[in-house]
TrEMBL record:
Domain (M23ase beta-sheet core) ranges: 176-270
Xref: InterPro entries: Cell_wall_metabolism_enzyme, Dup_hybrid_motif, M23ase_b-sheet_dom, Peptidase_M23_N
Domain Peptidase family M23 N-terminal: start-end pairs: 32-103
Entry keyword Signal: yes
Keyword Chloroplast in record: no
Entry keyword set: Signal
Protein name (database record): Peptidase M23
Native source species: Alicycliphilus denitrificans (strain DSM 14773 / CIP 107495 / K601)
Signal peptide positions (record): 1-19
Pfam name, any one: Peptidase_M23_N
Amino acid sequence: MLRGLGLALLPGPAVLARAATAPDAWPQALQVPGGVARLQLGPAPERPVVHAGDVPVLVLGDSIAWMALVGIPLSAPVGQAHVTVQAAAGAPGRRIAYRVAPKQYREQRLTVAPRTVDLAPEDLARHERERAHQQQIMATFSTPLPDELQMRQPVPGPRSSSFGLRRVFNGQARNPHSGMDIAAATGTPIVAPLPGRVIDVGDYFFNGGTVWLDHGGGLLTMYCHLSRVDCQVGDRLRTGDAFCKVGATGRVTGPHLHWGVMLNRTMVDPALFLPA
Ligand SMILES: [Zn+2]
């Protein structure tokens, strides 16, 4: 990852920035809502502890150059944001600021079954229960931390709509699209983009058949609208292992994979983790 940085160089910020942008090791940085900030933390004998609010942040690198990878929410205001850095757990914190630049996402208008927009009371109650469960899943922060970050596209096919679209269902504005849609036929196998562990399998009101994978350090991926799930919670997957199949379950207009990538409990643009 950060190999080849000679100690004799006494790396200044410019040197660190260059070494840490090795394209084979890091997601692309894009400091916009829904993007990822790569914050240089400099040298330290121990891995610093970083939080965005009270949510732990993935820190990678080595004693020569640590780096925080911060997921920026789609709802983040444009302007200054910050994380808190501690030399170790319990140590006093310091703030590192970064700027969130504006990004205008396109609007998408969709027509879906009315019952999936104007929820009946029992559907609303079901969705509230499912949301509480998903929030527990999203809080997963495990070790070991990931030792690779560049992902394999989990299913081949065209990206039928992109991350961040402002969505209007049957004329009503809803949350922006927080994943990548990949068009593929029902039954197409989906493979793990990185080594990971299955942490949730379910059938949810909006997302349909769903699997969550944990890649360590708060890096999670989510697969929705599945026709079939071929894994169980606790299974360990290697990159390229097939574990579920494309479908059209939940709130959809046709078969596709909805793929989500999460860092520090924040859905970020999966394209940043794929080779350019
Ligand atoms: Zn989607």
